[in-house]
Amino acid sequence: MSIFDLFRKQRSAPMARERLQVLLAHERASTSSDLVAVLREEILAVIAKHVDLDSDRVKIKVDREETFSMLEIDVEIPLDASLKAA
Amino acid sequence: MGKVIVVTSGKGGVGKTTSSAALGAALAQKGEKVVVVDFDVGLRNLDLVMGAERRVVYDIVNVIQGDAKLPQALIRDKRLETLFLLPASQTRDKDALTPEGVETVITELRRVFDWVICDSPAGIERGATLAMRHADIAVVVTNPEVSSVRDSDRIIGLLDAKTLKAERGERMEKHLLLTRYDPLRAERGDMLKVDDVLEILSIPLIGIIPESMDVLRASNIGAPVTLADARSAPAQAYFDAARRLCGEALPITVPGEKRGLFGKIFGRKAA
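The joint structure predicted for all components is written out below.
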């Protein structure tokens, strides 16, 4: 640590930006929860018809962009999941 | 048919009322016929900021409850012929605003004025949701500060869900008005930059209002800042924002960012 570091305060704006990004990603997912929750249940039901699946392994996220929202669906299927007869 | 704008933010104290008055006056200074409507029932302040506090006889609640006709409640600005104010009531409780009553008032105003500017109260309760309900355009007022940005994000979500436009499946036009911006502090890394806020909120920018003594001075004398000192930096920024609302494609400048030595010595006035 140089002596100059003693006088230099940490820039706070990058921290504000990062905290907001993390928080808002979370809050957006929970406030648009009606849609997300319904989608999650229905998608889960469809996949569960064909594959044995842990309900925690389905992640659904909505990201807002300027002119559209991005729906991200992340389904983790374990290797040993037994396929149900199609 | 006039356009309805809601000036909203979620958080209090970020400059909704100042911006409603300044944008309203700036549009009227261009010759547009404008009414600014105070939705903050119980805590009205638009009358004070516009210097009309002693001329309030009837208010929006009187109109909704049928105690007065709309033209009786409208106050014409003393300086600008085409600028009008519809005050909120100071005494009644906020439940006095009914969805049907607000709809009737807005419909009538839209017929007469080019612009109906709805100054929303802080929060996400009844007054705020009614203020945004009929809007065609939303101006989201935000300070470069974490709590304001978070609340604006919440309001953007409501604009996309709880307005008539949203319910009809149409897209609400939303604009960010960044207020109390200090380019020097942002440059030093001690304040969120314009681009940071834009990236987080993802709505287009309509103006950057610099932090300035002129804004306080204007409210002290009871005049929208565009009337109090039309050449000041915040007034210029509001004029530009008003032109963008009218559809002009002006480049956005960060006020006072390129300040040379002269500007540093003479400060704000030279900026």
